[in-house]
Amino acid sequence: MTDIGNLIAFIIGAVLGYMDFDWYYIFVGGIIGALGYYADRPFLVVKIKSERGEIGYALQFIMISCTTSLLPAIAFYIFN
Question: What percentage of the chain reaches a pLDDT higher than 90?
Fold first, then answer.
């Protein structure tokens, strides 16, 4: 699922760059990539929620979304 999520994120970034959208839409691809990342690791989600709570899970999701936004950002600027 991580590979599929990254592929979809790359395609989203490429399409957004080609259609001349604003740069902050690349985070949509990052969210898709983060969902793919967490789909492969269901026990990680349970562990984070039990150790850090809902706020810790939300912060972790934001950090993973920003990290997985790098691939759509590269595609965005290549096709822009």
Answer: 32
